Amino acid sequence: GAVVSQHPSWVICKSGTSVKIECRSLDFQATTMFWYRQFPKQSLMLMATSNEGSKATYEQGVEKDKFLINHASLTLSTLTVTSAHPEDSSFYICSARDRDRPNTEAFFGQGTRLTVV
Amino acid sequence: AQSVTQLGSHVSVSEGALVLLRCNYSSSVPPYLFWYVQYPNQGLQLLLKYTSAATLVKGINGFEAEFKKSETSFHLTKPSAHMSDAAEYFCAVSSSYSSASKIIFGSGTRLSIRP
Q1: How many CB atoms lie within 10 A of CB B71?
Q2: Which helix (DSSP H) or strand (DSSP E) does residue B77 occupy?
Q3: Which of A6, A30, A108 sits opposite B99 (nearest CB)?
Q4: Chain A: closest CA distance from residue B8 (Å)
Q5: Residue A71 and residue A77 in contact, taking contact as beta carbons nearer than 8 Å
Q6: Residue closest to A17 by CA, chosen among A72, A110, A89
Q7: pLDDT tens-place string over residues A7-18
Q8: Would you put residue A83 in left (φ > 0), alpha (ψ -120 to 50) or beta?
Q9: Which of A44, A96, A109 has its CB closest to that of B105?
Q10: How confident is the model over A58-103, as pLDDT tens digits?
Q11: How would you classify the pairing of strands A19-25 and A4-7?
Q12: Which of A11, A75, A105 best probes binding to B when mutated, by most B CB atoms within 10 angstroms?
């Protein structure tokens, strides 16, 4: 099946710094990618929808200035957590669907564990 | 708006016993429904999906789910549990299969298998 790759798989950063997480579709093109956040023992909460070549659409309650999303190409979306704080520590997962294969499921990256100290 | 509700945050069964994980959906349009499995510190793997072609859907690893419109349910079952089935399971819904259609997840059910 299609592969979505996230990088890094885990990162530790100091409070106040920024961290960038990459999400790549390796063998398909995606005009839309999705970013989720998952706290321990909880479900995936949709943060935003990343649109290639245009602004991301953020879910209610998600700070767009804190979670910067860039979708510069059909195979890459990035999420930057700016001025990270310990409460931003979480598991971040991206997903994408193949734009050229309708009626297929979304594919998920392996996730990025962010720890802010 | 769409949503799914998973009944039971934790289910424990004996190895070899029937697995039943419950999911009810709410949708104003015909839903597209999914079950995903997540192992610790990993992403999600699709178990099965409902595409409206058949109400009984068979997935990987011996899992299956039945779409019941009258009950707005999409429960996941497996006849005989295996130790390797221990994981977190998520029911999810989408309004369509378009590439721009977002997927909304239920709260998850942690499945434990007793030897």
Answers
A1: 11
A2: strand B73-78
A3: A30
A4: 13
A5: yes
A6: A89
A7: 999 999 999 999
A8: left
A9: A44
A10: 999 999 999 999 998 999 999 999 999 999 999 999 999 888 876 6
A11: antiparallel
A12: A105
